[in-house]
Design goal:
alpha/beta; five-stranded parallel sheet; 23% strand; elongated; binds calcium ion
Length: 217
């Protein structure tokens, strides 16, 4: 799930933004002060930062300079509609600009566009309510990380990449265990059972009679 930090000192606006983002399935954290924002950015990983310009502590431009090396995308949110401010924000590396007042549709659209732009280089797959990150080798369901063994993870990714298709036990074994299938399906079956249990996929990762398994997603 995408995690967004909202740096905005006006609580009503911050709440409005967060409620909107949460209803679209994003995780949202709020911070109301510039210095506290830098602190949070140091200690956490965010997929996107929404940044007000006028803030106590440190202003949005200062925060932008601070976070730029981290490569986290940022969208400025400000009441200032002046062209000079927009230019300054974009020159500092902001990805987009929102001028208050804005509606939720505009906010969500801009967030999606920026995230999609950054997603290209990212290796995440989301299927059946589960997100795997191929670089970090993490598996996230809801808001919690599910610990998987090496083979469980590989198996999970194989099912996700082939979601909707019935997969032969033989194919699964050869692709995930990278060895020749000897006709003994216990290894595959056991791992599928464990994966179902860990990910709550009892009704999602289904048995296909005389073939193997299929992930319905
Ligand atoms: Ca403000």
């Amino acid at each position: 799930m995408m995690k967004i930090l909202v740096v905005e000192d006006e609580k009503a606006i911050s709440d409005f933004i967060c409620a909107g983002l949460k209803s679209e399935g994003y995780m949202c954290e709020q911070v109301f002060d510039g210095l506290a924002a830098c602190d949070k950015i140091d200690k956490n990983t965010y997929d996107l930062i929404l940044l007000d310009v006028m803030l106590p502590g440190a202003d949005g431009f200062e925060i932008m300079e601070y976070i730029r090396p981290s490569g986290v995308p940022a969208i400025f949110i400000t009441a200032k509609a002046q062209v000079s401010d927009r230019v300054k924000g974009l020159k500092l590396g902001a990805d987009d600009y929102l001028v208050k007042p804005f509606d939720l549709t505009e906010l969500v659209t801009r967030v999606e566009v920026v995230l999609r732009r950054y997603q290209k280089g990212k290796s995440e797959i989301t299927k059946a309510g589960v997100t795997v990150n191929l670089d970090k080798r993490t598996c996230i369901k809801g808001e919690s990380e599910i610990p998987l063994t090496v083979k469980e993870f590989d198996l999970c990714v194989f099912f996700m990449k082939n979601a909707g298709a019935a997969l032969y036990r033989e194919t699964i074994y050869e692709r995930v265990w990278q060895g020749e299938y000897t006709g003994d399906s216990r290894t595959v079956d056991l791992h599928v059972m464990r994966l179902r249990k860990k990910l709550g996929w009892e009704d999602t990762l289904v048995t296909v009679s005389r073939i193997g398994y299929r992930l319905n997603a």
